[in-house]
Amino acid sequence: xxxxxxxxSCDDTSxxxxxxxxxVLSSLLSSQVEFHKEFQGVVPExxxxxxxxxxxxxxDQSLKESNLSLNDIDALAVTNRPGLIGSLLVGVGVAKGISxxxxxxxxxxxxxxxxxxxxxxxxxIEFPYIALVVSxxxxxxxxxxxxxxxxxxxxTLDDAVGEAYDKVSKNLNLGYPGGPVIDxxxxxxxxxxxxxxxxxxxxxxxxxxxxSGLKTACIYQTDKYLQKGFEKTFENISLAFQISAIExxxxxxxxxxxxxxxxxxxxxxxxxxxxxLRERFSNSTDFNTYLPQMKYTTDNAxxxxxxxxxxxxxxxxxxxxxxxxxxxxxxxxxxxxxKSALL
Length: 343
Ligand code: KG4
Ligand code: ZN
Known about the structure:
The chain is α/β, with parallel strands linked by helices. It has two domains: 2-116 and 297-332, Nucleotidyltransferase, domain 5, CATH 3.30.420.40; 126-291, 2-Layer Sandwich (Nucleotidyltransferase, domain 5). 40% of the residues lie in helices and 19% in strands. It has twelve helices and ten strands. It has helices at residues 33-36, 44-65, 85-102, 111-117, 161-171, 178-186, 212-220, 222-225, 234-260, 275-282, 302-311, 328-336, and strands at residues 2-7, 12-19, 23-31, 75-81, 106-110, 129-134, 139-146, 149-155, 264-268, 288-290. α5 runs parallel beside α7 (212-220) and α9 (234-260) packs parallel to α10 (275-282). The longest helix is centred in the last third of the chain and has 27 residues, at 234-260. The protein binds 5'-O-[(R)-(carboxyoxy)(hydroxy)phosphoryl]adenosine and zinc ion (ZN). 5'-O-[(R)-(carboxyoxy)(hydroxy)phosphoryl]adenosine binds at residues 10, 135-137, 162, 165-166, 177-180, 183, 269-271, 273-274, 298-299.
């Protein structure tokens, strides 16, 4: 079964054709980073317009690269939520249009569920497992019992971890997007030069995260955390921030692993590109760690087409009433199986 998938949830326009869940026939992406750079953040209006400019070309090109025509496609899949509303609307509108004109079924996919699926494109992973989704918009520990069946264990109470990277970078004028910039600077930082707090919530929030305090400490209070004999360089700030941002992810995941007895864990979402995070988990015997390939770590449509294949029999297909806010389509299959809905 060949699924043509679209993701326009944020600032990457992506289209892919995926056969039977993991045979990626084409996976194309048009990055908008150059257009948002001068604002050091994604400008929603620009993002929506840029999606419109490139989406039809990418659909055409993905068919050409796969030597297919629309007739050979069995279904459409599209991210309908969550994301920037103007951006989502472009992908959803195009997917609805193709589905309507070709009479092919349309599968709506939750973007976070698609990130959770991304390591499956290149790994065999046994259920149940723990999924850590870390991106510009989300910081979530989830128990995954099957494709489409998730139980959220912990989430952030304020900023997402990627958002903290981006905001620290923006406020210190280091560049955009902040994650890769800070990750690179951190490679030349001196260990223990600066020690920001590692924030670990407890009680009812034992699996939750908070990044606003770390962000503030980094931007305004570095002198307080600077250790004697060291300098306040951007490299040292970056390394110290990176350790305080990533350690809680490891510690909370380990805590839940100990509690549940589950050792299999996946990392996904843009922050899963982070070198410290990847090493921290991969070098540990606490977990069997599964990572997506780098190209499937940040936003992409292959993960959408892959998940759509696995949930297609458990959902009702979408139609022209599909919107970009309701979780109804995700709930339909999760509720049907009497499991808690994702997110
Ligand atoms: O998954 P993604 O492409 O989009 C969202 O759904 O948010 O993630 C983008 C986020 C941004 O915050 C970006 O700064 C972060 O991923 N990121 C990184 C790294 N590469 C991208 N964060 C830390 N280290 C990196 N190497
Ligand atoms: Zn994403």
